[in-house]
Amino acid sequence: METVKKLELSTDKAHEAMNFLMQQDLMGYIIKDLDTLGLVGEDQNKILTYLVATSRKMENPLACVIRGDSSSGKSCLAETVVKLIPDKEKEALTRITKQVLFYENNLANKLIYIKEADGCEESISNIRTLLSEKKLSLKRLVGTKVESFEVKGPVAFIETTANEMVENQTATRVFEIWMDESQEQTEEIHKIQKRQYGLAGAFKRKPTVSSCF
Which pTM was predicted? Predict the structure, then answer.
């Protein structure tokens, strides 16, 4: 088993970190950082998605489904937030098969991100169980011997979908986040794109910060 090196902060650094985390406008800093990473508008959706991702460390993590039409920016919102999570603390997947979760021995307090709902149709019942019961249990017959498996959670969960409906059993376990597809939001995206990719933006971008839209 790989040994995880524990990071020890000095007293001054720990005090500085706690002061930052206790700021009343902490959410404002998070929104500005996500703006810098290329997300335009969607402030409430940014915060909720970020809180879902970071809730993985909690006893009862959160889950969400980000809904929107094709090219509405839902994948960009999810992937930008997911990139902020350390690789060892997340599973970012395009597709997940029916039984694969039963053979994961290190899901506790991780974030599971599925890019599209169609990618987890086979395993959605197992994901729902993992969200609700915070574990998965399986018994199978191997030759003449019965073997037991248990996968421990809890996990945070993010999924994107262009489907018009979220299955009822899933909807009771997640926040449904709707992308802003208004004319005002579209105009704001176009304004940022012109600023970034126009002549003035070409001289200013060092390094380039690409927009997700």
Answer: 0.81
